[in-house]
């Protein structure tokens, strides 16, 4: 996951947390004890009192613990992404060594050997020099006549 995506998720979560804190600090318009009816579409802030049963089910977390869980989840997503990239682009050392060994054991074609290239270059040099000498002698003969 890129850093831009992490920053975006972090800002989104912070916006949600700030909104929840703002709702939590607003004065209660209704008393949750006398008016406990909340449908699935309504978000309500209900104060929890120690020793009394809550009117809802769920998990109650402190902000610090929620932040730790969120960071752990983001780290898990990041690690999963890194692992996927490693699996996609990695090649095992054994496979790489086998390829190099196969390449080293394969015979080199005769026209790619250094000795052939040396003889080819020498031969071309001799032929070009011979043509240059022949051409020069023809020019001298043409000027003498």
What does this structure look like?
- This protein has 145 residues and is an all-alpha fold.
- It folds into two domains: 3-90, no CATH class; 110-144.
- It is 65% helix and 0% strand.
- It contains four helices and no strands.
- The protein has helices at 3-25, 63-89, 93-105, 114-144.
- The longest helix has 31 residues, at 114-144.
Helix content: 55-70%
Number of helices: 4
Number of strands: 0
Helix and strand composition category = mainly alpha
Strand content: under 5%
Please provide the ordered H/E string of secondary-structure elements. HHHH
Sheet bearing the most strands, described? none
Tally of structural domains: 2
Would you tell me the overall average pLDDT? Answer: 77
Radius of gyration: 41 Å
The rough form would be described as: rod-shaped
Low-confidence stretches: 24-28
Query: End-to-end span in angstroms?
Result: 86 Å
